[in-house]
Design a protein that fits this description.
Blueprint (H helix, E strand, L loop, with lengths): L4 H17 L25 E3 L5 E3 L7 E7 L4 H17 L4 E7 L5 H11 L4 E4 L2 H6 L8 E5 L5 E6 L4 H26 L13
Parallel strand pairs: 3-4, 4-5
Antiparallel strand pairs: 1-2, 3-6, 6-7
């Protein structure tokens, strides 16, 4: 028992440290939160209004990697994550990536517009409702964030405050996977051989 105690203490300390600062993965390691392709389901479609009164549909983003964030202005963890998402938008928007925020504030644009202006949010935001939340499993906690791949399927779900590293790893992995497909098509158009792949029906 005495020999095992230091190991237990070390493991406990590691868990505590991961809780407060987040566990970073070594460079190049895949985001563990991403689901395998076979386990991904299509993201439910919706049509909601943005700050300019224009209708935004999720299908408008087909072909892009999308970070869909359900948030509220009164939500403390949301205020931590939103600056990360703004950074991702700046960094990856030219690679086929978009952030889309869904505010769940009951007061609507009256509170959301000043909040967005105060933070300088650089991505599109819409006002959600109960029916939208139900489409996505109820969204019982905020923030709830979905990573959606280029085919419109949910690749990861984060409920509550997640680590910035896991978000970024997931986004980059989805972009790299899609980038590889685009490169293969470009190579084929130039007469280069494509890597072998299995085309048999599953």
């Amino acid at each position: 028992m005495l020999l095992r105690r230091p190991l237990l203490v070390s493991a406990t300390a590691l868990l505590v440290a991961c809780f407060f600062v987040g566990c970073s993965s070594p460079r190049g390691v895949k985001a563990e939160s991403l689901k395998p392709d076979k386990d991904r389901r299509p993201a439910p479609e919706f049509a909601l209004k943005d700050a300019d009164g224009k209708t935004v549909r999720l299908e408008d983003y087909k072909g892009k990697v999308v970070l869909l964030d359900f948030f509220a202005t009164w939500c403390g963890p949301c205020k931590i994550e939103i600056p990360w998402f703004m950074e991702f938008e700046r960094k990856h928007k030219d690679k086929g990536f978009s952030v889309l925020g869904v505010s769940m504030d009951d007061e609507g644009w009256e509170v959301v517009k000043p909040f967005l202006a105060g933070l300088g949010v650089n991505y599109r935001v819409v006002i959600g409702n109960d029916s939208t939340a139900q489409l996505y499993g109820g969204v019982d906690a905020l923030p709830t964030t979905f990573l959606i791949d280029r085919s419109g399927k949910i690749a990861a779900v984060h409920i509550g405050l997640a680590s910035k590293k896991d978000f970024e790893d997931g986004v980059e992995q989805l972009l790299q996977a899609a980038g590889g497909i685009i490169k293969d098509v470009a190579d084929a158009s130039r007469g280069r051989a494509l890597p072998p792949f299995d085309v048999r029906p599953k």
